Each structure stands twice: as structure tokens, then as C-alpha cells.
Amino acid sequence: MIEVNGLTKRYGDVPAVDDLSFTIRPGEVTGFLGPNGAGKSTTMRMVLGLDAPTAGTALVNGLPVAEQPAPLRAVGALLDAGALLPGRSGYHHLLALAAGNGLGRGRVAAVLEEVGLSGVARRAAGTYSLGMKQRLGIAAALLGDPPVLVLDEPLNGLDPEGIVWIRKLMRRMAAEGRAVLMSSHLMNEIELTVDHLVVIGRGRLIADTRMATFIAEHSDQEVVVRAPRAADLGRRLTQAGAGVRPDGENRLVVTGTGPAQIGALAAAGGIELHELTLRRTSLEQVFMELTQDSVEYSSEKDAA
Asked: Which residues pair with 251 in a beta bridge?
């Protein structure tokens, strides 16, 4: 478990993180979202004990990471996949980390197998592709078999097979009872992978909620209906208090009611339906709308 309480980081008079509080629970994959400059990386660095907070606390299973007797056994992290010695092999990169945490060679071999790098483990890490370096970074995060994982943009550089693999890996880690915190700008992957969301902007908490709840609370549900007697159905829906707008020939977009109610109303009027589709707003749409006032760098602003 990760417990962040009143976490604050200031650089002079500029707050990078401002009185932030949230909890990352075991058994869940939590998505950590925010625009560029929102304070995500700074927050993760404070959680991992790499930056000292100006105020507040960040605890991993009740202790700061700096006080953990074997940090890799407490929390595994991927912040920068390129943070390695290019002349050292992937195997020896992991072996050096293992030695400092009382882990043996067998564990190094196991995580190399887990991430699919056993065949290139003796090659210099500097010759690895971006996707291979990312896998090596994930291997380092898994090395201590920790109950908590903190992954910053773990999908960077991965091909489609690698993206599916990391998605399944994170789901499996959570199913085993671990607390998984991942940051990513790939909203479609966040939507497919995470259970819970923590969203920040300008260093402050915007949302801390379940994925489904986040989308439902910040979006309007629409139902697409196609019927030969669309005009007749539209009048009936309007009389029932629904919002209706035409969307092409014999097609309506309906708000304020659900598919079951629309189907029942159509059946009562003897109206044949050719389509009845629930259309929900995507995570990306909700995120963009909710954080538009927290964006530090915007091409639209630059162009204005």
C-alpha cells in the first residue's frame, strides 16, 4: 500500500505538488494521470524517496522507502528505462541491483525470463532497443518480488505485443494482491488496464475514484437509435422527457434515458428498431475536458 498525506513540493515559490493525499491499495491497478507538468513524476520520486518533500509524507507499507531495510523487496519502480550503464550487460545490471538487496542469481534469471530478455541478457544494455530497455527496467522493478509497483510510462517503446504483455502483467500483479501504480499518457491503455484513477493538475488532486465512476460522473450517456420510423420515435421520446437530435437518415442520438426505456417505448408504439447502441464518453474525452484548465503546455495556447 502507498499512503500519500499532505504531500507538498516547492521549488522556491513554485508548487510542483500541492497538499496531495491519496492511497494506492493492494489488489488494484491505479492509473496516475495528469497533463505534462502536473507533478506526477515529482510525486512518484517523493514516494520512492528520491526527492524530499517540502511537507507531508509518502509511506510504502507504513514506512518511508528510505527506512525500508531492503528497498527492492518493498517497492519496485520504473522511472527511467535509460538509467543504466551502457557497457554493462542486462544480466549484470540486474545482478548489481540484486547484490545490494540480498537477492541471488536465481532471481535475476527468473525476472529475465519473465520479461523475455533471457536470450539477450549477456549483451551490453547500451545496444538494446527502447522496447528492450523498457523490459529491462520492468525486470528491475520485479527483482525483489515486491508487494508494491510504481511504473512511470511503462508502455513507452513497446510494440503491440509488448503492450498486451505489460497490460496482462500488471493485471496479474494486482490479482496476486500487489498495489500497482502506473502513469501513462495512453488513455486507451489506461481504460483497458486500471481499476482506479488518481488524477492531478498543477500539483493538486482533481479526482480519486473508480474508473467507471470517473467516466460516469463526468460524461453524458448517449444512445444511438436507428429506425425506419425515426421521426415518430423521436416525438414519443421527446414527449417522455428525453433529449433527441437527428444524426443522419433514420438515426437519432438520445440523451436522458437508457436503451431499455427506449426499447420499451418503441415496442409500445409498434416501432421497429434497426440499431440501439449505448455510446459512452471515452476516458480520453473526460480527461481532456476535466484537465483543460490545468494544462501547462498547449499547442492551441502557443498558436493563439
From this structure: 226
φ/ψ (deg, to 5) at 13: -95, 0
Asked if residue 140 lies in contact with residue 151, where contact means CB atoms within 8 angstroms, the answer is no
268 pLDDT more than 90: yes
The CA distance from 300 to 219, in Å, is: 23
Angle separating helix axes 160-175 and 130-142, nearest 10 degrees: 10
Average pLDDT value for residue range 148-165:
91
Region 166-192: mean pLDDT is 92
Separation CA 206–CA 106 (nearest Å): 43
Residues 51-79: tens digit of each pLDDT: 999 999 999 999 999 999 889 999 999 99
Across 108-117, 192-201, 213-222, 228-237, least confident range: 213-222
How far apart CA 192 and CA 223 sit, in angstroms, is: 22
- What would the 3-class secondary structure string for the chain be? CEEEEEEEEEECCEEEEEEEEEEECCCEEEEEECCCCCCHHHHHHHHCCCCCCCEEEEEECCECHHHCCCHHHHEEEECCCCCCCCCCEHHHHHHHHHHCCCCCHHHHHHHHHHHCCHHHCCCEHHHCCHHHHHHHHHHHHHCCCCCEEEEECCCCCCCHHHHHHHHHHHHHHHHCCCEEEEECCCHHHHHHHCCEEEEEECCEEEEEEEHHHHHHHCCCCEEEEECCCHHHHHHHHHHCCCEEEECCCCEEEEECCCHHHHHHHHHHCCCCCCEEEEECCCHHHHHHHHCHHHCCCCHHHHHC
